[in-house]
Amino acid sequence: MAFGSFDSRRHQGPMAEINVVPLVDVMLVLLVVFIITAPLLTNAVKIDLPKASSTANITRAEHIEFSIREDGSYFWNGEQIAVTSLLERFAIEAKKQPQSELHIHADKFAHYERVAQVMSSAAKAGVVRIGFVTDPAQSP
Fold it and tell me: Which burial class, exposed, middle or buried, applies to 80 when counting CB atoms under 10 A from its CB (0-12, 13-18, 19+)?
């Protein structure tokens, strides 16, 4: 396999074959390196961990059932209250640890403005856990 010649009359075209022997050599060396180093990367200390069984300790925070009727009346855990005492009650609940959750039960036909005012009063007092209660049985 001659690559060149000193004979200027004999003109050869470009070589069209690739020598793959060096490529195979490099691949075999890499394969050997990976075979040797792979077990070293997966070392672990074998220990016997103690076994214990326990149940999850689920502590539920108290919640406030706050209802808003269509006529604009407000109820705190079933007791009717005035709008003026909302901020004071929310401030008391915000200081408790863990903080109580506010569950708002709004009538289907209650004005959104009243619901927004209650949420705003709760947020101003520091109550951050607010949720809406809906009836999942009814679908639109």
Answer: exposed
Token pair, residue 125, equals: 């007092």
Domain assignments of the chain as residue spans, ordered by start: 63-132
Indicate whether this model's pTM tops 0.85: no
- Whole-number average pLDDT of the chain: 82
Strands 74-76 and 101-106: unpaired
Per-residue pLDDT of 59-85, as tens digits, reads 666 888 999 998 989 999 989 999 889
Dist. CA 63–CA 80, nearest whole Å: 17
CATH topology of domain 63-132: Nucleotidyltransferase; domain 5 (3.30.420)
CA proximity to 106, closest of 94, 118, 88: 118
Query: DSSP assignment, residue 6?
Result: S
